[in-house]
Amino acid sequence: MSIPKVVGIEEEYAIHMPGEQVLTPFQASCTLVNAYARKVGLRAPGTRLLWDYGHETPFKDIRGPLFGKITNQQTISDEENLRINAVLPNGARLYTDHAHPEYSTPECLSARDAVACDKAGELIVREALAAARDVAPWLKVKLFKNNIDYQGHSFGCHENYLMDAAAHEECFVRDPGKAMRGLVPFLVTRQLFAGSGRIGSERGQASSAPYLISQRSDFIENIFGLETMYARPIINTREEHHADPTRFRRLHLIVGDANMSEFAGFLKIGSTQIVLQMLEDGYLTEDLSLRDPVDALRKVAEFNFPVELADGRTIGALDLQREFLAKAEQYCRSGIGPAVPDAQLILQSWAYALDGLEELRLSKELDLVDDPRMLSRRLDWVAKLWLIQRYRESKDRSWDSPALRVFDLQYHNIEPESGLFRRLQSQGLVERILDDAEISQRVGTAPPDTRAYFRGKCIERFAGEIIFVNWEVVGFDHGEVHRMVPLLNPLKGTKEQFREVFDRCANSRELLAMIRS
Amino acid sequence: MSESRQTQIPKRKRTKPEDETEAITPAPLISEEAKKQKLKELDEFMEDVLQKAGEEFLDEFKQVEGE
Predict the structure, then answer these.
(1) Closest among A297, A206, A240, A186 to A60, alpha carbons compared
(2) N or C: fewer beta carbons within 10 Å in chain A?
(3) Which residues of B touch A429 (CB under 8 A)?
């Protein structure tokens, strides 16, 4: 039987530094990380909470050593570790990845909480920016939650889902055909509601589309693979499960766009949770294998919707999504597998989006002719298209006007005074599924129903006693000995299990004594 | 969106169960006047964003590959 789809999101923020700069983007990212770490007390004297890289194996492939890479992986000094990393009291990790600030949410049980945590990440990096400006007023930095720079580079919004080890092995190692038949067609067409939209294409003459549904579609070149910076796959096969690998595996998806819209983010995560449970439970029995998933991903992004299946049949991308929705509705009624949190809202949102897409009318020039269900209030790519269309019409601009690319990027600017999405939201021009209190709560508090609660609570209460943390362990420095608390089950370490324990202990020695007893 | 060309698999029409209430509505009611004012403010905001970004914005936005 399937297991709950614990999910975490990794957002890489684009960093824009206008004019002459004293710092490099890497240095500026580290400045942000440490400004926020100081703000929440993680740089107090005696606190040296490191990120433990010991469980990271970016060059190992789930399919075996033939697919992996041999490299001289370097360890970094404690000083460098502290410069790069901050593990937060909400169970998240804020750090510098290459030259970007990156925010990895804590593990969440529900799509709603995942979106709240992702949105809390926006607030945290904004607070980091403000804190950095307090100490370095000359620092000119702007942050964007998007995936492209219009100069040929892409950066990710990765999703991680907990899977049952045996089902994962079966679907991605022993018989990848199972993933090809069920999961991959869903992921290829999911962009219809989850895409963030962009002007033009990376493919030059190979594409004539002036606007694409997805930011990532042009950067995806494989179905499965280990790479993340070139030859990117839909499904990343890194063997790094961050849990007991005999029971759990991580599904690492790198095909998705960063969402500003709460509705789109919620639907992306929620629908994927249901589809993954159906995959684990053997509920996706129809063979919907695509003839060429990567080609289909790009074609759908270019509004070329007929999708060719491997058996020669053709189906519309929207109809393919309707197949998944119909199955999901049956599945959620069936009682097979654990209940997906907020399943009814996910299914209703999914149906609403597909109905709305069916009724959406676009001209040949990709102008919005009719949007009766107001998807421009819910889906990022439609909202952005609507904004750009307003400008194009009022100023009589062609699609290659640089102003349109500026608007695309500024849609994702996280600051209220410049961010177009933020503006739409503050004006009540987009629909929300969360309230501000839910998001604010996730700035300082971990989700209660996963191991993130234990990690977050340890950091909140005993940061000065922790020597290192990663997703699956909290390590305490008890002078003569370092003591580890393994968190190998993402579903354990919850508030229900540990609230009283944390209430009763004054330090980590007492905490460990109570756990042992 | 029209996508019916060459479709060989029959389209699945969504059949809404009788007891399913519409939990999601297209948009909250708002007067035409208020809507017009919001859109005017939005257009002004976009102009301002464009001005503030400056001519170098797109060149200076260059990132390194992520992940």
Answers:
(1) A240
(2) C
(3) 38, 42
A287 close to A137: Cβ distance less than 8 angstroms: no
Q: Tell me the chain A residues in contact with residue B3 when contact means C-beta distances shorter than 8 Å.
A: 305-306, 316-319
Domain boundaries, chain A: 363-426
CA distance A88 to chain B (A): 21
In tens, the pLDDT along A217-235 reads 999 999 999 988 889 999 9
Phi, psi of A122 (to 5 degrees): -60, -45
Helix A402-411 with B32-53: angle, nearest 10 deg: 110
Name the pTM for this structure: 0.96
Interface of B with A (CB under 8 A): 1, 3-9, 11-12, 14, 16, 20, 23-24, 26-28, 30, 38-39, 41-43, 45-46, 49-50, 52-54, 56-58, 60-67
Buried b (16+ CB within 10 A) or exposed e, A48-76: bbbbbbeeeebebbbbeeeebeeeeeeee
Which residues on B lie below 8 Å from A309 (Cβ)? 9
φ and ψ at residue B50, rounded to 5 degrees: -65, -45
| Partner-chain contact B63 A100, CB within 8 Å | yes
ipTM over 0.95: no
Residue A110: left if φ>0, alpha if ψ -120 to 50, beta else—which one?
A: beta
Other beta carbons within 10 angstroms of residue A371's beta carbon come to 20
> Are B23 and A149 within 8 A, CB to CB?
no
- Which chain B positions have a beta carbon within 8 Å of A18's beta carbon? 54, 56-57, 60
Whether A257 and A147 have beta carbons less than 8 Å apart is answered as: yes
pLDDT per position as a tens digit, B6-59: 435 667 766 665 455 567 888 888 899 999 999 999 999 999 999 999 989 999
Q: Do B54 and A18 touch (CB under 8 A)?
A: yes
State whether B49 and A418 contact (CB < 8 Å): yes
Per residue in A276-285, pLDDT (tens digit) is: 999 999 999 9
Token pair listed for A445 = 């508090």
